[in-house]
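We emphasize that the prediction below concerns an isolated chain of 286 residues; any contacts that depend on oligomerization or on bound cofactors are therefore not represented. The input was used exactly as deposited, without trimming of termini.
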Amino acid sequence: MFFTNRYDQLDKDNQDLCIQNNELKQTIRNLESKLQTKPDTSQSHLFLGKLLHTNSHNIRLYVSRCRTLFPNLTPWDFNRPIDRDHQTKLTQIILDKGYLEGSFDLIECRDKLAIVNGQHRYQALLDIMKSNPQFDMEIYCNVHPVPSFEDSLATEVFLSTNNIKNVELKDNPQEKLQNVCLRLMKQFPDGIKSNKSGRANLHRLDLKELYNVLQVNESFTDDSLTEQMMYDKLIQINHKLSLKPYTYFFKRRSQRSDKLYQGACDCGFYLGLKKGGSLGMILMNA
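Result of the prediction step, given as a token string:
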């Protein structure tokens, strides 16, 4: 009798557990169904902050904090040059109002983030952050995934997120110029670098710096020029510079000048010995 009662009790307990298990399975199915129809918008990103929305094109909207996000961003190499007067005005507006209007557009590739729209606001906020360690601000960011920062899709994002009033024709990233700059960087890996600051030291040129010089140079913005013609022209200019004497680049000998000149000779890249306006004049008159 004892064993019979014990068996009956175990059988009943087993049936109860089966019912509970089925109920749990149904609960899980219901939750999975809800998650599929209503994505979890409470997800957060270490740098970007809280995810608010993801649209049908997989563009994600985040609410971020500039002090957390900005150190982990880089300006896009093929963005337009910074207008310092505009940046200064934005800095003052932010300080006066205490808030910032508009959102930022970022491109994302392999967990790296670059700004394609909002770089003047970025620089303005960055200046305030540098002068005031306590300053922080909530901002909104649209994140556009791209195969690479050099891909044509990145250029499309730039053009579509910068309106006509803000971007003139000369500011539009030109695929030919981008490709020329990237080919030169591949040809002279120790002569052209891509830096977050947009500047390179010693004998080198920064990729963004080179692109900006070419972008405003009439001898390289002629639509009749092919990519290969531009590339060959720059290679030829670099070769001509390699035949110039030390005194063409420097007025007098110094330890730093010697180091610059030796670096250019070692890597075969001489364009970096001339910066800014001087480089522009060489390219214009070549």
